[in-house]
Amino acid sequence: MNNGQVILISGSSSGIGLHLAKHYLERGWTVAGCARHAAPLAHDRYVHFCVDVADSASVEKMFAGIRTQFGALHAIVNNAGVASMNAIALTPAAAARQVLETNVLGTFLITHAGLRLLRRGKSGRIVNVTTIAVPARLAGEAIYAASKSAVETFTRIAAKEFGPFGITCNTVGPSPVRTRLTNSVPITKLQALVEQQAVQRWAEPEDVANVVDFFLSDRSSLVTGQVVYLGGYG
Q: Which of 14, 93, 115, 216 has the most C-beta neighbours closer than 10 Å?
């Protein structure tokens, strides 16, 4: 099965990104994935690029490859992200810089470079990934939450700028998911966050994919500039 559509998923080597890559391969998409490391995924419709999303030259080279191989791009999921979950006083400047460059600059660079390919179609889709750490305002997550708050603002403004081209831009904010990103956070802290949700359970990657499916749907052409938090937080 091949539906002829091409999607780029950043951070596809593990966690939510890897799940999304498999999810869209199962639905007939051609998937271009990227991450700093190789992905444990082999498929005739999957192409992987080893890229630092915060490096503009690497991002441009990746899109040149996508343009050469596929000639088009129909959707982008900006999932790549890093976290430094620590008190402000204990967060090194280098760690803060890496979070901001990966999460904010990386989202900008991929969106900026991908826009030219998305504009070739009539219904491009961009989905960015945020977190419920933004509305939760948890102590110890200042830099991470600030970076994702920037992504949310970027999404809302991008939606206005890209709307005339038929391109939508939305954001999904997962509640705690058991991934490598959350492994460094004390389980008691994450469980306390889950207990503040309207639906008090951990999220699964399938929950995230469900929202992304909605944003990518042809029937969602009027849905843009939105932030959907899972679990009823916010």
A: 216
| Res. 227: pLDDT tops 90 | yes
Place of tokens 């869209």: 24
Q: Is there a contact between 24 and 43 (Cβ–Cβ < 8 Å)?
A: no
pTM score over 0.90 = yes
Report the C-alpha gap between 159 and 78 in whole angstroms. 14
Strand order in the sheet with 125-129: 46-50, 30-35, 6-10, 75-78, 125-129, 168-173, 227-229
In this predicted model, which residue has the larger pLDDT, 190 or 229? 229
User: Between the CA of residue 7 and those of 20, 27, 89, 171, 187, what are the distances in Å?
Assistant: 10, 11, 40, 16, 33
Query: Rounded CA gap, 229 and 233, in Å?
Result: 6
Within a 13 Å sphere around the CA of 114, how many CA atoms are in the beta-carbon half? 32
* CA neighbor of 54 nearest in space, from 131, 12, 125, 109: 109
Q: Estimate to the nearest angstrom the gap between the alpha carbon of 39 and the chain centroid.
A: 16
Query: In whole angstroms, what is the distance from residue 112 CA to residue 53 CA?
Result: 12
Specify the pLDDT at position 176: 72
pLDDT digits (tens, 9 = 90+) for 36-67: 999 999 999 999 999 999 999 999 999 999 99
For 145-161, letters b (16+ CB in 10 Å) and e give bbbbbbbbebbeebbee
**How does DSSP classify residue 175?**
-
Tell me the one-letter amino acid at 121: G
Say yes or no to pLDDT of 185 above 80: no
